[in-house]
Recover the amino acids of this structure.
């Protein structure tokens, strides 16, 4: 398809209906965007600090105000232009976004330790309101519609602005949903964007489609074509290198780039010695051959292990690994000559957790290697075609482009690899043991048809030893933890409930087959408050 013709199909005006999301630094802001995109409506995330003019020029059909790690009680916490509330544009405030609406319109918020809520909470819908009409998880014995939601707030609304009504409360907190239907202003204390809030998507849909009157015009193929179009426009006839690990993210990025620029894409496979069994060069090479893509293999194990000697801190490890990856990319760009572009399969959760959004209100959770390793004074240009998308969206794109099933549904594997699954100092001998234990766990999951039902599973090497007995002898061996989680977008996750029979089988195999391991534990923490990886 030629570029002019493609441009036409975007002018189909997929941007005609648009939602503006104002970000106050929430970890979850991209999830709001993801749901709105999935509803087929175009949206953009902007820093909260926008002017009236910028909003007018964007011409949104609706505005969503995100949550924030800040407290509204703090006088220096972010505020938004009053135009947001008096423009006549429908507004939905989420968590901090609701509190800011309350405070800027004359209501009151305070901090009360007894009213803090984190995690699952039940919301009682007290009066009929269009935002949540006919949306509930169940009806209580007293006939009250109840929503099961995910809360995360320290501060609580105690009085609402004039002409607002309290639509819902919780047993702990007097205000969980507010509305001013005349002015189309709504607020939710809970997070509709996280998957734990089961009806969250329906509430956002009610707002975007029924209240803002947006029509659904976006779909996955249009998004793919738009990304390809943008890559061509940006890169033109230049050559690009891409670090291809064989995971779903870098493979989807490779396919998009290959479709956009063909032979001008050169993939690099860097063997850092921190890979799992069966996730090696062999498979990546086969994938590249199938699609006729250039691939170069680089053996760099010693360089990575050498740089990790004596390093215990997770953030330091991540940064060192990110830096070495970048050094290797830069070296290759020089030696291959004439290459100024580096492509990466960075996805949205990498960016959010590394606090690398365009502004810095988000708190750093972890420095993802492909984000944190980037040198400030880099000489190359960066292209990240899937930076705005979450794992499930990336998988959908991969599916549409015919990505093989073994790559498409492969569990995610972090860029720093086994280095962040060995707690503390990374040693080659620890990685060897970890790799063996991990292989057993994954093999057993596959045998029991559980692999595809779980979003991510792996073993962690705890770097502590414990006493056991084998026969009549004392055994002083290493401890490993099994981790399995289910998640849609990897921003939140629940630990997977595995049967005792299954866990026992895996633990027995690991202890019997790997003589240096004496104990196996199972991690039953969900995210939040834990993260998926241990480091
Ligand atoms: P956490 O541990 O932050 O992980 O809950 C969320 C998802 O991201 C993966 N992960 C990474 N992926 N580079 C990556 O490419 C990284 O540095 C990185 N750290 C975590 C993790 O495996 C999970 O799927």
């Amino acid at each position: 398809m030629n570029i002019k013709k493609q441009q036409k199909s975007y002018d189909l005006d997929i941007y005609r209906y648009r939602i503006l999301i104002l970000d106050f630094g929430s970890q979850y802001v991209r999830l709001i965007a993801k749901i709105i995109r999935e509803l087929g409506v175009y949206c953009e995330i902007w820093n909260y600090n926008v002017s009236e003019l910028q909003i007018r020029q964007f011409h949104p059909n609706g505005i969503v105000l995100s949550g924030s790690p800040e407290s509204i009680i703090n006088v220096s916490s972010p505020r938004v232009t009053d135009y947001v509330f008096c423009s006549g544009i429908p507004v939905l405030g989420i968590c901090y976004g609701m509190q800011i609406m309350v405070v800027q319109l004359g209501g009151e918020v305070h901090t009360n330790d007894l009213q803090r809520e984190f995690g699952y909470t039940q919301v009682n819908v007290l009066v009929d309101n269009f935002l949540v009409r006919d949306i509930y998880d169940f009806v209580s014995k007293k006939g009250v519609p109840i929503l099961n939601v995910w809360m995360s707030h320290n501060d609580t609304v105690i009085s609402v602005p004039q002409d607002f009504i309290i639509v819902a409360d919780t047993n702990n907190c007097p205000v969980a949903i507010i509305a001013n239907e005349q002015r189309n202003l709504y607020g939710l204390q809970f997070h509709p964007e996280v998957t734990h809030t089961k009806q969250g998507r329906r509430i956002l849909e009610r707002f975007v489609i029924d209240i803002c009157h947006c029509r659904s015009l976006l779909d996955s193929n249009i998004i793919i074509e738009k990304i390809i179009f943008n890559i061509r426009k940006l890169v033109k006839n230049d050559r690009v290198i891409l670090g291809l690990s064989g995971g779903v993210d870098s493979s989807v990025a490779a396919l998009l780039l290959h479709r956009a620029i063909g032979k001008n894409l050169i993939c690099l496979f860097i063997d850092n010695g921190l890979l799992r069994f069966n996730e090696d060069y062999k498979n990546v090479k086969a994938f590249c051959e199938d699609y006729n893509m250039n691939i170069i293999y680089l053996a760099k194990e010693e360089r990575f292990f050498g740089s990790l000697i004596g390093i215990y801190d997770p953030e330091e490890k991540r940064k060192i690994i990110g830096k070495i990856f970048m050094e290797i990319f830069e070296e290759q760009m020089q030696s291959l000559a004439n290459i100024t572009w580096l492509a990466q399969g960075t996805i949205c959760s990498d960016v959010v957790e590394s606090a690398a959004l365009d502004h810095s209100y988000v708190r750093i959770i972890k420095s993802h290697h492909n984000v944190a390793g980037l040198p400030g004074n880099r000489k190359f240009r960066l292209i990240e075609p899937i930076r705005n998308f979450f794992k499930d969206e990336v998988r959908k794109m991969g599916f549409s482009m015919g990505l093989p099933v073994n790559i498409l549904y492969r569990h995610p594997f972090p860029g720093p690899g086994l280095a962040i699954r060995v707690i503390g100092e990374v040693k080659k001998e620890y990685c060897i043991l970890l790799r063996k234990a991990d292989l057993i766990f994954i093999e057993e999951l596959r045998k029991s048809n559980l692999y595809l039902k779980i979003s991510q599973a792996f073993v962690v090497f705890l770097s502590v030893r414990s006493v056991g007995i084998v026969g009549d002898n004392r055994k002083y061996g290493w401890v490993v933890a099994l981790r399995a989680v289910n998640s849609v977008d990897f921003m939140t996750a629940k630990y997977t409930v595995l049967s005792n029979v299954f866990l026992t089988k895996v633990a027995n195999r690991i202890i019997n087959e790997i003589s240096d391991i004496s104990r196996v534990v199972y991690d039953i923490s969900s995210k939040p408050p834990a993260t998926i990886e241990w480091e």
